[in-house]
Design brief:
- The structure holds 2 protein chains of 2 kinds.
- By secondary structure, chain A is mainly alpha-helical.
- Helices cover 75% and strands 0% of the residues of chain A.
- In chain A, helix 1 packs across helix 5, helix 3 packs antiparallel against helix 5 and helix 3 runs parallel beside helix 6.
- The two termini of chain A are 33 Å apart.
- By secondary structure, chain B is mostly helical.
- Chain B has one domain.
- Helices cover 76% and strands 0% of the residues of chain B.
- Chains A and B meet through helix 2, helix 3 and helix 7 of A and helix 2 and helix 9 of B.
Chain lengths: 271, 273
């Protein structure tokens, strides 16, 4: 990766961090849903034994990452539009995709803090055991899922450049991903026609890897049931990586298209 | 008192507040989001419920968990309009720079204040109707015994009283810079407190008392009874309790609206920046 690209990624990442520290209350709208959903699921599951608590807590963490990333994609573009700086960002010689990528990773990273908070609440308030069977694979699964969620956010961000309804889309796209990726329940429960949509989502495989790395108790419910746990995690991570790379390629193509269209038609600000 | 003038203010402020949301949202998107939000929120919790049923487990006292969750979420959908949108009315005025102009007018505040919320009552009822359709056709909830009149009254009164609660919280929008934060918090915590997905009795004891400050708690309970076929007359006590809570919310909301208006004028915090 050229040093210039790395500099743009780092600057965008740093700017998103500075925005967050300057006005941290903005993170609330994006983390409140995962907190509440986890609380509701844990209350429903409190009498059930087995891996129910694991589903609720890890699912809540993944949802936190997704909520933050979607916010990064949606609100960041609307924010630039409101402040009148969107034209400058697009007019700069830096690739818009790199700018949004830096922000997206930064916000997904904040989602991780949300995951830690959810884990702590689950442990303290609901007495959910938080032992992690394989910490290294758990960390690797988290990082890859985070990247996958960020890359998915990039695809949505490309369309947000064209619309002034990014805020609404941000709210509207949050829940469907929670459902389709099976964040808090096995996707086998979803109607069969939803399964293809679940399989093309990186977080679907990522959360499977995270659950397997956390507890072998989950192995029988994994996509790779019957396979050795470490092999199953590796397969999940390979799928997550493959899908993430595909997302990045699609996002790069869409950003190019959208940028050209908005420049040609002069619709960037009043879109 | 000029009654026709008050009525005109009430209706014009209702229509303007509805139209104002299309400044940042186009009508097809508004309708699409109504369907997406209703379906995805309900589906999420229904599948969580179905997952629980795979372990032959269910919260005590619930015979049909899927119906319990689907109905709870369907009625809760009106909160997106009556809490989230109502809180955001003032926020949008603030960010649009029109709040100072609005408050500089000699318009009586009560019809202006209530009128702005009321269109969201109808919008909220539409959200509930769409959600009921999903509950019936996608999740197999039985509405065969429902007392339609009772259900209609319950949904209207719940939306009306929740809009009152939205106004109460909306008063904060005058003074605080980011009312959207309150809008999100107060919309989502209803999922915890109002018996949407599990009975209020499943909450820790100290939290149960909090549940009854939200009109939605009574509304969801009454809605489930109406769908089970209980006639309006047996639901009336719940509706009376809900109306009292809603009325108190509107009065407190109006009073906080005036106080925060006064405070914002005094401290110069009416604008977004």
């Amino acid at each position: 990766m050229p040093p210039q690209t790395l500099r743009v990624l780092y600057s965008a990442f740093r700017m998103a961090m500075l925005h967050w520290f300057a006005d941290p209350q903005w993170v609330i709208p994006n983390v409140i849903a995962p907190f509440v959903f986890t609380f509701v699921a844990l209350t429903l599951f409190k009498e059930a034994s087995g891996s129910f608590g694991l589903y609720a807590v890890l699912g809540g963490g993944m949802m936190g990452m997704w909520g933050n990333t979607l916010y990064a994609s949606g609100f960041a573009i609307d924010f630039e539009r409101w402040q009148g700086t969107l034209e400058e960002v697009v007019a700069a010689p830096s690739n818009l995709l790199h700018v949004i990528s830096g922000r997206s990773v930064s916000n997904a990273l904040f989602g991780l803090t949300n995951m830690v908070a959810i884990l702590l609440i689950a442990a303290l308030a609901f007495r959910i055991p938080l032992g992690i069977a394989n910490p290294i694979l758990f960390a690797l699964s988290i990082v890859l899922t985070l990247l996958s969620v960020s890359a998915l956010g990039l695809i949505f961000a490309s369309s947000f450049v064209l619309t002034r309804s990014a805020q609404v889309l941000t709210n509207g796209l949050e829940f469907p991903i929670y459902v389709i990726s099976g964040s808090m329940f096995p996707i086998a429960l979803l109607p069969f026609w939803v399964h293809p949509a679940a399989y093309i989502l990186g977080p679907t495989w990522g959360i499977d890897a995270i659950r397997l790395a956390t507890s072998p108790q989950y192995a029988s419910q994994s996509f790779w049931a019957g396979t050795d746990v470490n092999v199953a995690i590796a397969l999940n991570l390979a799928m997550t990586l493959l899908i993430t790379l595909a997302y990045v390629a699609i996002a790069a193509f869409l950003f190019k298209k959208v940028e050209t269209k908005s420049r040609r038609e002069g619709t960037l600000v009043q879109a | 008192m000029n009654i026709p003038k008050l009525i005109r203010i009430f209706f014009s402020s209702a229509v303007f507040s509805f139209k104002a949301q299309f400044e940042w949202l186009n009508p097809p998107m508004w309708l699409a989001m109504k369907f997406v939000m209703s379906l995805s929120q309900m589906a999420f919790f229904v599948f969580v419920g179905r997952f629980l049923l795979t372990a032959d487990s269910s919260p005590a006292g619930i015979t049909d968990l899927v119906a319990f969750i689907a109905i709870g979420n369907a009625i809760m959908m009106l909160s997106w309009n009556t809490i989230f949108s109502v809180i955001n009315i003032t926020s949008n005025d603030k960010w649009g720079g029109t709040l100072s102009i609005l408050l500089a007018t000699p318009t009586p505040r009560l019809p202006l204040f209530v009128g702005r919320a009321m269109i969201h009552v109808l919008d909220g009822m539409l959200s509930v109707a769409i959600s009921f359709v999903f509950a019936i056709f996608l999740f197999g909830v039985n509405f065969g015994n429902a007392d339609v009149l009772a259900l209609l009254v319950v949904v209207f009164l719940t939306a009306f009283t929740m809009a009152g609660f939205g106004l109460l919280i909306g008063g904060l929008a005058f003074y605080y810079r980011e009312p959207l934060v309150f809008a999100n918090i107060f919309t989502f915590i209803l999922l915890i407190f109002c018996g949407v997905n599990f009975p209020v009795q499943d909450l820790p004891q100290p939290l149960q008392a909090v549940s009854y400050i939200f009109p939605l708690t009574y509304g969801i309970d009454a809605g489930r009874k109406a769908i089970a076929g209980e006639p309006l007359v047996t639901i009336v006590p719940l509706l009376v309790q809900m109306s009292i809570v809603g009325l108190v919310s509107i009065l407190l909301g109006y009073s906080s609206f005036r106080s925060f208006e006064h405070l914002a004028r005094k401290t110069g915090r009416m604008e977004a920046e």
